Amino acid sequence: MGIVQPNPTYSPSSIASPFQDASGISQSLSTPRFPSSSSNATLGVLEVRRRLEARAKDELENVGKSTDTGREFLDISTVKQILLRRQRGESATEIEARLNLKPGVVARLGPESVVAPAS
């Protein structure tokens, strides 16, 4: 088994005809046209996901080292701890220091009146 070779047929009733693209080059309608990779939303999402995974991996590898600047990527247990501490009245700065988080992580969870732990 190999690659299938198309067998084009002529049909006198066909209304398909070659068209010209923006550069004036004539192309067949059967030629696939793909969006450029820079404007392809799916490829953009996959690229962002790849970069986030790389950052999370780097963060995990640096935990406990002298180059550790705090965590930014959280598991659900840590999110729950943050919300419970915040509910008890601890400041964002205290929570970030105790849980070794980067500054601003607690604020990104949203205001206390909107986000709260489910009990």
From TrEMBL:
Disordered: region residues: 1-40
Low complexity bias locations: 26-39
Extent of Polar residues compositional bias: 1-17
InterPro entries linked: HTH_put_ascomycetes (IPR054448)
Annotated Pfam families: HTH_68
Residue ranges of domain Helix-turn-helix in the record: 73-117
UniProt-recorded name of the protein: Helix-turn-helix domain-containing protein
Organism annotation: Thermothielavioides terrestris (strain ATCC 38088 / NRRL 8126)
